[in-house]
């Protein structure tokens, strides 16, 4: 039990609007610490991290990613398959990887990726400082590239049993697709196609199924 002197040292006066109130600093610190831990736990429960992997195949089912923010970073020669509806994707520093994802309800950001293949459906796609990558996308706004070279684009070509249900639940408008309307922030010459991206010819295009492990090309 705290002595009177300890209680007095732990009490301070704070102004709450036009009122003054006594606050036990020790109790307030404990409450703030608890709230911080709760916030941290909540954030970790809503985030899926795939970080620092080499030569691995990783598959996530819908209940593992639905509504969550997914971070994929520092991978080499990995294949990552996400069935379901992630909220956002943050992808950074990948080399020689394949990333296949169900419809993402919000945005996808890709940075510093090289010689990778992506199959993504989302509202917004921002790609920075990446080269020699192929993107199979369905997107309801113009894809944006910046600081990129030798990027290629094709329509989203991923199949699995719950795909149509996931599309509806994701809120994506499937009738709108800007897969081949790429905005290059480093190319500003009107009427001239950017040299930094091109479409993948039909005979070269790939497709994937998320119902099989590992997901084969179709």
Describe, in plain words, how this protein is organized in 3D.
One of its GO terms (biological process) is tubulin complex assembly. This is C-CAP/cofactor C-like domain-containing protein. It comes from Adineta steineri. Residues 39-187 form the C-CAP/cofactor C-like domain. With 218 residues, the protein is an alpha/beta fold. The chain contains 4 helices and 18 strands. The strands form 4 sheets. It has a 7-stranded parallel beta sheet. Strands 4-6-8-10-12-14-17 form a 7-stranded parallel beta sheet. The longest helix is centred in the N-terminal third of the chain and has 21 residues, at 25-45.
Order of helices and strands: HEEHEEHEEEEEEEEEEEHEEE
So, CATH architecture of the largest domain?
Answer: 3 Solenoid
Helix percentage range: 10-25%
Round the Cα radius of gyration to an integer and report it.
Answer: 24 Å
Record the strand order, biggest sheet. 3-5-7-9-11-13-16
What is the count of DSSP helices, taking H or I runs of 4+ residues? 4
Tally of strands: 18
As a percent range, the share of strand residues is: 35-45%
By secondary-structure content and strand pairing, the structural class works out as: alpha/beta
Mean pLDDT, nearest integer?
A: 86
The low-pLDDT segments are 34-43
* CATH topology assignment of the largest domain: Pectate Lyase C-like
Shape: globular
């Amino acid at each position: 039990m705290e002595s009177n002197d300890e209680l007095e040292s732990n009490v301070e006066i704070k102004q709450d609007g036009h009122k003054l109130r006594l606050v036990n600093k020790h109790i307030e610190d404990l409450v703030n610490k608890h709230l911080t831990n709760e916030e941290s736990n909540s954030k970790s429960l809503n985030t899926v991290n795939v970080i620092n992997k080499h030569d691995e195949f990783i598959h996530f089912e819908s209940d593992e990613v639905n509504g969550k923010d997914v971070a994929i970073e520092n991978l080499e020669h990995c294949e990552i398959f996400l069935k379901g509806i992630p909220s956002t994707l943050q992808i950074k520093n990948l080399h020689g990887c394949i990333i296949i994802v169900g419809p993402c309800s919000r945005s996808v950001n890709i940075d510093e990726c090289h010689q990778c293949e992506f199959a993504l459906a989302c509202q917004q796609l921002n790609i920075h400082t990446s080269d020699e990558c192929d993107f199979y996308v369905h997107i309801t706004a113009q894809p944006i590239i910046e600081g990129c070279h030798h990027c290629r684009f094709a329509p989203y070509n991923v199949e699995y049993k719950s795909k149509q249900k996931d599309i509806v639940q994701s809120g994506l408008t499937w009738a709108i697709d800007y897969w081949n309307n790429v905005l290059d922030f480093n190319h500003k010459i009107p009427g001239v196609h950017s040299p930094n991206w091109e479409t993948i010819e039909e005979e070269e295009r790939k497709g994937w199924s998320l119902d099989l492990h590992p997901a084969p090309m179709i």
